[in-house]
């Protein structure tokens, strides 16, 4: 596996990230565009990116602007910026392989919307996503937690981002219909609990797959990695036989 820096422009801002390439260099059927969640970084997605590269899929994992550990700098102006950064990661870093969009939390919603907007997208994998995204935010303790997380982000508040996600997700799920969708949720997720994951999955069209892992919200990407690889292998096999 080869890991190397990548950078490109999106919305007038510099986006940086990492590319993960299969060691054999054989052209792959798909390329994964990986997007982290709010107040996080590409580091949290490394288990998924590494597992995909080891399975033979090239990966571009981006750091969104305005984030605490990010290399991109800048500011997260809105949820739409995360979606555009995902689309630009594929469009500006050219590859003959069609994209699969994969994300966690806010990045999961961005992956879903980006996949619905990109006619070349093969499918979408969303980790730690539910509907509505704002389901737990009337709880005062949860509001306080999200306000603390806002301190780690230069840009839009988590409440603003969550409301934008809730507005975008139903239409994105409709547009994604007929393309493969994977949802991986956490049984101990307090931010987007199992009931919200079940609601999102019910809204999605087939072909769709739902896996649950024994994890809290931030722990989902680590345990989700083998399920993402298994799902993408199945997508590849289905396309090859059709």
UniProtKB/TrEMBL annotation:
Residues 33-224 form the AB hydrolase-1 domain. Transmembrane segments: none annotated. It comes from the Bacteria. Gene3D superfamilies: alpha/beta hydrolase. Coiled coil: none annotated. Pfam families: Abhydrolase_6 (PF12697). InterPro entries: AB_hydrolase_1 (IPR000073), AB_hydrolase_fold (IPR029058). This is AB hydrolase-1 domain-containing protein. The lineage of its organism: Bacteria, Bacillati, Bacillota, Clostridia, Eubacteriales.
């Amino acid at each position: 596996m080869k890991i190397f820096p990548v950078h490109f422009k999106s919305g007038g801002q510099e986006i940086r990230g990492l590319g993960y390439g299969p060691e054999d260099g054989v052209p792959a059927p798909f390329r994964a565009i990986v997007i982290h969640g709010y107040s996080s970084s590409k580091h949290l997605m490394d288990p998924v990116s590494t597992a995909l590269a080891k399975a033979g899929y090239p990966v571009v994992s981006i750091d969104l602007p305005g984030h605490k550990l990010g290399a991109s700098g800048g500011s997260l102006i809105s949820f739409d910026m995360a979606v555009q950064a995902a689309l630009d990661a594929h469009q500006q870093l050219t590859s003959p392989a069609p994209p699969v969009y994969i994300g966690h939390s806010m990045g999961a919603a961005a992956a879903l919307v980006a996949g619905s907007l990109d006619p070349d997208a093969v499918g979408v994998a969303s980790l730690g996503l539910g509907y509505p995204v704002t389901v737990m935010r009337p709880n005062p303790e949860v509001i306080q937690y999200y306000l603390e997380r806002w301190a780690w982000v230069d840009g839009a508040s988590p409440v603003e981002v969550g409301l934008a996600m809730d507005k975008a997700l139903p239409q994105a799920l409709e547009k994604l219909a007929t393309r493969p969708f994977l949802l991986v949720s956490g049984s101990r997720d307090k931010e987007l609990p199992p009931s919200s994951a079940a609601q999102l999955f019910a809204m999605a069209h087939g072909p769709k797959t739902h896996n649950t892992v024994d994890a809290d919200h931030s722990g989902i990407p680590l345990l989700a990695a083998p399920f993402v690889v298994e799902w993408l292998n199945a997508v590849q096999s289905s396309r090859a036989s059709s």
